[in-house]
Design a protein that fits this description.
By secondary structure, the chain is α/β, with parallel strands linked by helices. Helix content is 47%, strand content 14%.
Length: 417
Amino acid sequence: MDYHARSLALVDEIERAYPVTQWQVGDVPVWPLARLILHGNLYKQNEQSVASAEEKAHRPRRASLAASYALSPLIDAWQRRSDLRHTVLVPRRANAVYLGNGDAFDQIDGAWQDRFGDPVIAELRKSGRSTFLMQYGDIWRHLPWQRPTFSANTIMKWGALSAAGLGLARRLPSHLPDYDLVQQFLRQADVPLSGLAPMDLRKAAAATAATARRFERVLKIVRPSLCFILGYFSKIGFALSLACRRQGILSIEVQHGGCGARNESYCWSAVPEHGYTVLPSVFWTWTEGDTAVIEAWSRKLKSPWHRGIQGGHPQLPVWFDDNDPQTRSFDARINEIRAGSPAEREILVALQANEGYRDLWNELAALIERAPSNWRWWLRHRQNTRGAERQLGRLFALRRPNVLIEEASLLPLPALL
């Protein structure tokens, strides 16, 4: 059984047998946070990716980590100094907020844009509505930006710092009924319990509460009626969803990958009577099937807060229009590559540098080396990190005229398809 199926089976049994919907620290529901930690533990166990001594040696010490968190505004500004024109330092009034996950980007006409958010922002602008765009993570790796962007890094990091500094984990009231029974169940199922001790859960909830408070300050300035979140099932996504719930703002999760019945963030067997405050109100899905997955549990559980709506794939309409300038531009670029070196076959490989697949990628590299030279391989790889290079093995090191790595990685996926 793969870790996805195992994760879903475990949480389904827990949610049916134990009162985890009542787990609370302050006003933060704890079970969704525990679910995220549990899923991460199962992934690490499945991929046998427990940190090596080398990785542990490179982990930043607590003091240096705290210092980097405290200095995050200056660090962000310095890293983005080459694109100050699109750097937003202070929140501004807007009709909607959009938070990207710091990973879903495409380079269009020399500038980077959010793959799913930019079409949403463009449609809102057509109807006369403005959007305040936020991103999280190493967004300085993708410069320049297409639109003015506010970094949410400081909100997340200062939220964690303030929670630790104020000792919120010990001060907030805690309610974890039947925790010992759930812990016993997980031990019997041979599930790693890292990060799932009561104090760990209290710390996670305290950081979520403090981060939500900082998001509330932003929301009070922006005063939006809608808040779009790409990838809510994360520490920052939970915090923003909670901030929206506190402020009475409609939160909307924008689907960014296949969800269906095998995605742990879209399937719930039990929710509180008024829904989870750290989950979005609306799940914007791509297909009827994806919407049905949300509706299956939200209607069955009679949750008035969580609903699915089929909004479609935001990125695709442009690529279905052969006369759109963007589509025509990328068609011309790809046709130029193909005309310069005709190939009998065009083969696209979309890669993820997950643990445990290095032997498979080495086999693929050997296959490419044996294949006819007039087969062109587009090796699409979006994670430019040392760990990714290590996991992809020989595949990442292939340098042949018929193997395109950089081009396949920079071009938007719909353009390649």
